[in-house]
Design a protein that fits this description.
The chain is α+β, with helices and mostly antiparallel strands. It has one domain: HIT family, subunit A (2-Layer Sandwich), CATH 3.30.428.10. Helices cover 24% and strands 22% of the residues. The protein is built from seven helices and 13 strands. The chain has a ten-stranded antiparallel β-sheet. Helix 1 crosses helix 4 and helix 4 crosses helix 7. The protein is globular, with a radius of gyration of 20 Å. Bound molecules: zinc ion (2 copies). The site of one zinc ion (ZN) has 4 residues, from strand 13.
Length: 328
Protein backbone atom coordinates (compact mmCIF):
# COMPACT_ATOMS: atom_id res chain seq x y z
CA UNK A 1 0.00 0.00 0.00
CA UNK A 2 1.52 3.40 -0.90
CA UNK A 3 2.28 5.63 2.04
CA UNK A 4 -0.27 8.33 2.59
CA UNK A 5 1.24 11.83 2.74
CA UNK A 6 0.05 12.21 6.32
CA UNK A 7 2.36 9.34 7.31
CA UNK A 8 5.42 11.10 5.90
CA UNK A 9 7.70 12.69 8.51
CA UNK A 10 7.38 16.40 9.20
CA UNK A 11 9.54 18.86 11.13
CA UNK A 12 7.84 21.03 13.72
CA UNK A 13 9.95 23.92 14.96
CA UNK A 14 9.04 26.48 17.56
CA UNK A 15 11.54 29.19 18.41
CA UNK A 16 9.73 30.25 21.63
CA UNK A 17 10.18 26.78 23.09
CA UNK A 18 13.62 26.51 21.41
CA UNK A 19 12.52 23.12 20.18
CA UNK A 20 12.70 21.14 16.95
CA UNK A 21 10.67 17.93 16.71
CA UNK A 22 10.42 15.43 13.86
CA UNK A 23 6.97 13.84 13.81
CA UNK A 24 7.60 10.46 12.14
CA UNK A 25 4.53 8.19 12.41
CA UNK A 26 6.20 5.28 10.57
CA UNK A 27 8.71 4.94 13.41
CA UNK A 28 5.86 3.48 15.49
CA UNK A 29 5.81 0.46 13.14
CA UNK A 30 9.41 -0.52 13.67
CA UNK A 31 10.06 -3.91 15.19
CA UNK A 32 12.10 -4.63 18.28
CA UNK A 33 13.92 -7.86 18.87
CA UNK A 34 14.56 -6.87 22.47
CA UNK A 35 12.00 -7.29 25.23
CA UNK A 36 11.88 -4.98 28.24
CA UNK A 37 14.66 -6.97 29.87
CA UNK A 38 16.92 -6.64 26.82
CA UNK A 39 16.54 -10.29 25.84
CA UNK A 40 16.35 -11.08 22.12
CA UNK A 41 13.03 -12.35 20.78
CA UNK A 42 12.22 -13.55 17.22
CA UNK A 43 14.52 -13.67 14.16
CA UNK A 44 17.13 -11.07 13.24
CA UNK A 45 16.79 -9.25 9.89
CA UNK A 46 20.41 -8.03 10.04
CA UNK A 47 22.09 -11.47 10.13
CA UNK A 48 23.84 -12.80 7.02
CA UNK A 49 21.37 -14.91 5.01
CA UNK A 50 18.42 -12.67 5.99
CA UNK A 51 19.07 -9.96 3.33
CA UNK A 52 15.58 -10.48 1.81
CA UNK A 53 14.12 -9.01 5.01
CA UNK A 54 15.81 -5.65 4.40
CA UNK A 55 16.02 -3.18 1.49
CA UNK A 56 18.95 -3.66 -0.95
CA UNK A 57 22.39 -2.28 -0.05
CA UNK A 58 23.36 1.31 -0.69
CA UNK A 59 26.99 0.25 -0.07
CA UNK A 60 28.67 -2.90 1.16
CA UNK A 61 32.10 -4.09 2.26
CA UNK A 62 33.78 -5.69 0.53
CA UNK A 63 32.43 -4.00 -2.62
CA UNK A 64 32.83 -7.25 -4.61
CA UNK A 65 29.34 -8.77 -4.44
CA UNK A 66 30.70 -12.26 -5.15
CA UNK A 67 32.32 -12.21 -1.69
CA UNK A 68 30.37 -12.49 1.57
CA UNK A 69 29.66 -9.07 3.05
CA UNK A 70 31.20 -7.88 6.31
CA UNK A 71 29.23 -4.63 6.61
CA UNK A 72 26.31 -3.10 4.67
CA UNK A 73 24.52 0.22 4.53
CA UNK A 74 20.78 -0.01 3.76
CA UNK A 75 17.91 2.49 3.69
CA UNK A 76 16.05 2.65 7.00
CA UNK A 77 12.57 1.16 6.57
CA UNK A 78 11.26 3.35 9.37
CA UNK A 79 12.84 6.70 8.51
CA UNK A 80 13.02 9.82 10.65
CA UNK A 81 13.51 11.86 7.46
CA UNK A 82 12.82 11.04 3.80
CA UNK A 83 13.70 12.47 0.40
CA UNK A 84 10.54 14.46 -0.15
CA UNK A 85 11.56 16.74 -3.02
CA UNK A 86 11.21 19.99 -1.10
CA UNK A 87 14.34 20.60 0.95
CA UNK A 88 14.66 23.76 2.99
CA UNK A 89 17.89 25.05 4.48
CA UNK A 90 16.23 27.02 7.28
CA UNK A 91 14.05 26.42 10.29
CA UNK A 92 11.49 29.21 10.36
CA UNK A 93 10.58 30.54 13.79
CA UNK A 94 7.28 28.70 14.03
CA UNK A 95 6.48 26.26 11.31
CA UNK A 96 5.82 22.74 10.18
CA UNK A 97 7.26 21.36 6.96
CA UNK A 98 8.27 18.05 5.35
CA UNK A 99 11.25 16.37 7.06
CA UNK A 100 13.56 16.06 4.08
CA UNK A 101 16.67 13.95 4.29
CA UNK A 102 18.29 10.51 4.20
CA UNK A 103 18.11 7.90 6.97
CA UNK A 104 20.14 4.71 6.61
CA UNK A 105 21.29 1.80 8.76
CA UNK A 106 24.88 0.60 8.90
CA UNK A 107 24.91 -3.12 9.69
CA UNK A 108 28.36 -3.47 11.21
CA UNK A 109 28.82 -7.25 11.24
CA UNK A 110 27.51 -10.23 9.29
CA UNK A 111 27.47 -12.36 12.46
CA UNK A 112 25.00 -11.59 15.22
CA UNK A 113 27.40 -9.51 17.30
CA UNK A 114 26.09 -6.96 19.77
CA UNK A 115 29.32 -5.23 20.82
CA UNK A 116 31.92 -3.51 18.68
CA UNK A 117 34.48 -5.37 20.77
CA UNK A 118 33.46 -8.63 19.05
CA UNK A 119 34.56 -7.27 15.63
CA UNK A 120 38.22 -7.81 14.74
CA UNK A 121 40.26 -4.66 14.19
CA UNK A 122 40.54 -4.98 10.38
CA UNK A 123 36.79 -5.52 9.92
CA UNK A 124 36.04 -2.61 12.26
CA UNK A 125 38.32 -0.38 10.20
CA UNK A 126 36.29 -1.54 7.17
CA UNK A 127 33.09 -0.35 8.87
CA UNK A 128 34.50 3.14 9.37
CA UNK A 129 35.83 3.19 5.80
CA UNK A 130 32.31 2.39 4.62
CA UNK A 131 30.83 5.18 6.78
CA UNK A 132 33.46 7.60 5.47
CA UNK A 133 32.71 6.60 1.86
CA UNK A 134 28.96 7.09 2.32
CA UNK A 135 29.36 10.47 4.02
CA UNK A 136 31.66 11.61 1.21
CA UNK A 137 28.97 10.64 -1.31
CA UNK A 138 26.49 12.90 0.51
CA UNK A 139 28.77 15.96 0.22
CA UNK A 140 27.13 17.80 -2.66
CA UNK A 141 24.00 15.61 -2.76
CA UNK A 142 20.97 17.79 -3.60
CA UNK A 143 19.11 19.01 -0.52
CA UNK A 144 21.57 17.58 2.03
CA UNK A 145 23.14 20.33 4.14
CA UNK A 146 24.69 18.21 6.90
CA UNK A 147 25.14 14.55 7.77
CA UNK A 148 26.11 12.42 10.72
CA UNK A 149 26.39 8.87 11.99
CA UNK A 150 25.29 7.83 15.45
CA UNK A 151 25.17 4.69 17.53
CA UNK A 152 22.75 3.60 20.24
CA UNK A 153 24.34 0.72 22.15
CA UNK A 154 22.05 -0.94 24.68
CA UNK A 155 18.48 -0.36 25.83
CA UNK A 156 19.40 2.63 28.01
CA UNK A 157 20.88 4.27 24.90
CA UNK A 158 17.74 3.74 22.79
CA UNK A 159 18.66 0.58 20.86
CA UNK A 160 15.72 -1.56 19.67
CA UNK A 161 17.67 -4.19 17.69
CA UNK A 162 20.49 -6.18 19.24
CA UNK A 163 22.49 -6.88 16.06
CA UNK A 164 25.44 -4.50 15.84
CA UNK A 165 24.47 -1.42 13.85
CA UNK A 166 24.57 2.34 13.75
CA UNK A 167 22.61 4.91 11.76
CA UNK A 168 23.39 7.59 9.22
CA UNK A 169 21.27 10.69 8.77
CA UNK A 170 21.54 13.50 6.22
CA UNK A 171 19.41 16.62 6.79
CA UNK A 172 18.48 19.64 4.71
CA UNK A 173 19.25 21.93 7.66
CA UNK A 174 21.90 22.25 10.38
CA UNK A 175 20.32 20.90 13.59
CA UNK A 176 20.21 22.99 16.79
CA UNK A 177 23.01 21.33 18.79
CA UNK A 178 25.34 21.54 15.82
CA UNK A 179 24.39 25.15 15.08
CA UNK A 180 25.00 26.11 18.73
CA UNK A 181 28.44 24.44 18.71
CA UNK A 182 29.42 26.21 15.52
CA UNK A 183 28.22 29.57 16.88
CA UNK A 184 30.22 29.04 20.09
CA UNK A 185 33.34 28.13 18.12
CA UNK A 186 33.12 31.39 16.19
CA UNK A 187 33.80 33.34 19.41
CA UNK A 188 37.38 34.58 19.81
CA UNK A 189 39.56 32.29 21.92
CA UNK A 190 37.25 29.29 21.60
CA UNK A 191 39.00 26.50 19.75
CA UNK A 192 39.32 22.75 19.88
CA UNK A 193 43.08 23.21 19.80
CA UNK A 194 42.78 24.92 23.21
CA UNK A 195 40.51 22.12 24.46
CA UNK A 196 43.11 19.50 23.47
CA UNK A 197 45.86 21.56 25.08
CA UNK A 198 43.89 21.83 28.31
CA UNK A 199 43.10 18.10 28.27
CA UNK A 200 46.80 17.33 27.89
CA UNK A 201 47.69 19.65 30.78
CA UNK A 202 45.05 18.00 33.02
CA UNK A 203 45.89 14.38 32.19
CA UNK A 204 42.64 14.03 30.22
CA UNK A 205 44.10 12.56 27.02
CA UNK A 206 42.89 8.95 27.22
CA UNK A 207 44.55 7.61 24.06
CA UNK A 208 45.92 8.65 20.69
CA UNK A 209 46.33 7.05 17.27
CA UNK A 210 48.40 8.94 14.71
CA UNK A 211 47.31 12.57 15.04
CA UNK A 212 43.84 11.73 16.39
CA UNK A 213 43.24 11.91 20.14
CA UNK A 214 40.61 10.64 22.58
CA UNK A 215 40.06 13.09 25.45
CA UNK A 216 37.71 13.58 28.37
CA UNK A 217 36.06 16.93 27.50
CA UNK A 218 36.08 19.85 29.97
CA UNK A 219 32.37 19.48 30.94
CA UNK A 220 31.49 15.78 30.62
CA UNK A 221 27.77 15.03 31.01
CA UNK A 222 28.34 11.54 32.40
CA UNK A 223 31.34 9.72 33.84
CA UNK A 224 33.73 8.68 31.04
CA UNK A 225 32.25 10.88 28.30
CA UNK A 226 34.98 10.95 25.65
CA UNK A 227 35.60 12.92 22.47
CA UNK A 228 37.69 11.68 19.54
CA UNK A 229 39.10 14.40 17.31
CA UNK A 230 42.10 15.29 15.13
CA UNK A 231 44.82 17.48 16.64
CA UNK A 232 44.77 19.75 13.59
CA UNK A 233 41.65 21.57 12.37
CA UNK A 234 39.54 19.71 9.84
CA UNK A 235 35.85 20.60 9.43
CA UNK A 236 34.62 17.51 7.57
CA UNK A 237 35.19 13.92 8.64
CA UNK A 238 33.79 13.00 5.22
CA UNK A 239 36.89 14.64 3.67
CA UNK A 240 39.47 13.22 6.07
CA UNK A 241 42.37 10.90 5.22
CA UNK A 242 42.33 7.08 5.28
CA UNK A 243 44.83 7.28 8.17
CA UNK A 244 42.43 9.32 10.30
CA UNK A 245 39.52 7.02 9.44
CA UNK A 246 41.66 4.10 10.65
CA UNK A 247 42.55 6.07 13.78
CA UNK A 248 38.87 6.60 14.60
CA UNK A 249 38.31 2.85 14.23
CA UNK A 250 41.19 2.13 16.63
CA UNK A 251 40.10 4.75 19.17
CA UNK A 252 36.39 3.83 19.22
CA UNK A 253 37.29 0.23 20.03
CA UNK A 254 39.91 1.35 22.55
CA UNK A 255 37.59 3.71 24.41
CA UNK A 256 34.65 1.28 24.44
CA UNK A 257 36.96 -1.49 25.71
CA UNK A 258 38.13 0.75 28.57
CA UNK A 259 34.56 1.85 29.31
CA UNK A 260 33.43 -1.77 29.38
CA UNK A 261 36.29 -2.62 31.73
CA UNK A 262 35.43 0.28 34.04
CA UNK A 263 31.66 -0.36 33.92
CA UNK A 264 30.95 -3.85 32.53
CA UNK A 265 28.10 -3.82 29.99
CA UNK A 266 27.84 0.00 29.98
CA UNK A 267 25.32 1.34 27.46
CA UNK A 268 26.44 4.31 25.42
CA UNK A 269 25.66 6.58 22.49
CA UNK A 270 28.07 8.11 20.08
CA UNK A 271 27.62 10.57 17.28
CA UNK A 272 29.75 12.41 14.77
CA UNK A 273 29.77 16.18 14.68
CA UNK A 274 31.12 17.54 11.45
CA UNK A 275 30.66 20.84 9.65
CA UNK A 276 27.84 21.46 7.20
CA UNK A 277 28.75 20.59 3.62
CA UNK A 278 29.67 23.09 0.93
CA UNK A 279 30.65 26.70 1.45
CA UNK A 280 29.94 26.55 5.17
CA UNK A 281 32.66 23.92 5.64
CA UNK A 282 35.13 26.16 3.82
CA UNK A 283 34.30 28.96 6.27
CA UNK A 284 35.00 26.65 9.24
CA UNK A 285 38.58 25.76 8.39
CA UNK A 286 39.62 26.34 12.04
CA UNK A 287 37.10 23.83 13.38
CA UNK A 288 37.58 20.10 14.20
CA UNK A 289 35.12 17.31 13.44
CA UNK A 290 34.72 15.04 16.46
CA UNK A 291 33.03 11.89 17.66
CA UNK A 292 31.33 12.28 21.06
CA UNK A 293 30.98 9.04 23.05
CA UNK A 294 28.42 9.45 25.84
CA UNK A 295 28.01 6.59 28.33
CA UNK A 296 24.43 6.24 29.58
CA UNK A 297 25.15 5.27 33.16
CA UNK A 298 22.31 7.35 34.64
CA UNK A 299 19.08 8.45 32.92
CA UNK A 300 18.54 12.08 32.01
CA UNK A 301 15.84 13.17 34.47
CA UNK A 302 13.91 16.30 35.46
CA UNK A 303 16.91 18.49 36.21
CA UNK A 304 18.68 17.65 32.96
CA UNK A 305 15.54 17.94 30.81
CA UNK A 306 14.26 21.05 32.56
CA UNK A 307 17.47 23.03 32.74
CA UNK A 308 19.83 21.74 30.07
CA UNK A 309 22.40 21.29 32.86
CA UNK A 310 23.86 17.89 33.68
CA UNK A 311 24.94 16.23 36.90
CA UNK A 312 27.87 13.84 36.95
CA UNK A 313 29.64 12.12 39.79
CA UNK A 314 33.14 12.23 38.32
CA UNK A 315 35.37 15.15 37.42
CA UNK A 316 37.01 15.05 34.00
CA UNK A 317 40.38 14.28 35.61
CA UNK A 318 38.96 11.39 37.65
CA UNK A 319 37.13 10.00 34.60
CA UNK A 320 40.38 10.10 32.64
CA UNK A 321 42.37 8.47 35.42
CA UNK A 322 39.89 5.60 35.85
CA UNK A 323 39.48 5.07 32.10
CA UNK A 324 43.25 4.91 31.56
CA UNK A 325 43.68 2.51 34.49
CA UNK A 326 40.76 0.25 33.48
CA UNK A 327 42.19 -3.11 32.52
CA UNK A 328 40.73 -4.71 29.42
ZN1 LIG B 1 21.55 -10.70 13.75
ZN1 LIG C 1 30.05 18.30 19.27
Amino acid sequence: MPDSPSRNPRIHHHSLAARTVVVAPKRADRPSDLDAAGTIVGSCPFCIGQESQTPPDVLRAPADATLPWQARIIPNRYPVVELCGSPSAELASHTTRPAHGIHEVIIESAAHFHSILEVDAAAWRGVWQLIHQRLAMLDGAPGIAWATVFKNSGLAAGASLEHLHSQLIGLDFVPPVMAAELAAASQPGHSFAAVIEQAAANGCVVAEAGDVVAIIPPAPRQPFETWILPRAPEPLFSATSPERVAAVAILTQHVVARLDAAVPGANYNWWLHQAPFGERAAALSHWHWHVEILPRLAPFAGFELGTGCHITTLSPEESARRLKEATT
